[in-house]
Amino acid sequence: MNSTKTDTLFVSIEDFVPQFYWLSIINILSNLIIPLVGLVDAVLLGHLADIEDLAGVLLATILFEYIYQLFPCLRSATNAMTAQAVGEDDSEAIALTLYRNGIVALSIGVLIVVLQFPLQIVGFALLNPAPGVKDAAIAYFNTRIWGAPAIALNYVLIGWFLGQQKNSTNLFLSCVVNGINILLAYLFIVQLGLESAGAGIAAAISQYLALIIGLIIVLVEIPSKTLSSTISQIWNWAAFKATFTFIGNLLIRYLSFFSTLLIFTNLSSALGVAILIQNGLLLKIIDTSIYIIQGVGYATSSFAGIFKGEGNYQLMKSLIRFSIGTSLLLSSILAFTLVCFPKFIFGLFTNNLEVVNDIQSYVIWLIPILGTLAVSFVLEGYFIGLIEGKLLRNTALIAFGLGFTPMAFVAWYTHSNHILWLSLWLYFVVIIIVLSTQVSKTLKSSLDSNTNSV
User: Fold this and answer.
1) Relative to the CA of 303, which of 113, 114, 154, 264 has its CA 20 to 30 Å away?
2) Can you spell out the DSSP letters for 384-401?
3) What is the value of pTM for the model shown?
């Protein structure tokens, strides 16, 4: 795979910057298709006569995001491991990363389907929704859960394509499959009247379509010679152990973040149905913004992995600088647009005037939260690319324990939604502080090792 090595070797900032921004743009376009489906579901359900369907899907979505935390870990781990293999010009390692991570993903997806009933009972007991909201949430959960194996494998495929910078492939898959998801959601929710259950059915079917198309592309991508030479190497326990360790550390990092969101949502529910819906809609906006910002984070992770695999440490500082600058620019545009036009944007989700009017009191929190989120995601992407799973795990635990939890307790005690939003902001602030102190150390150690090797 010498051609891959040549294509990804950067010798100056002029070589790196255009490809970094192009990779970020493609990632953003690909990512935007994913939350678009959730937004369409929210719009369709928000205009039904019974607003509890919307609340139920918003609540169940938080539960799915919590259950599916291993899936983003699989994508991030596959992306970083594939990128380093690309930087090392190792075609067999590229293929083996897909095989091994795919086996892990399939096992996890099947296990989730098997355990769906205990997960449902425990999950909704923790979220503690109102009876009408709970019925809608369970209907959505019971249909969407069957797509778990396909979703797990799709995350591995996405990471594998990202690691090789084949982002046009991801964009194609996202456009085709999620376009079908939108059409199916309209059919099942509006035409057939299946409400929240219809949204879950559409999501599950679209994931299996994505998997079929993705596997066809993989068969075309991997030469038969490489396929035959790597099959016998799949069952390498040391390699599986390293994969499990990295994924496990990333899992703790993701669980910390989504435990924060779960507790945030639970406390929102305790403040009343109106606050739950308002905070849920704001979280939906934040979730959509994350998909945009993650486009830069994925690019950062890919380049960090490739640079490490190549032993090219000279552009590490440029990578951090351009990543943070680009991410902050995007988050600023998003935040100020939402703050300036709240009635129009949130009016798309629901025609309940009370919800739309009251939500304006909390929209201002999007400015600091999206700003800190942008920087924290880039820093995390950088360290994921370097496969620094232990650091990411410890940072997330510190952010949860010292940043979010104390102020969330104050919010619960005072019944203040503003303090609750402050606790979420502090989570990202702590991540930035901890990881920022480590960036200079990685640059120094990398440059020192590079100098010594010369």
Assistant:
1) 154
2) HHTT-HHHHHHHHHHIII
3) 0.77
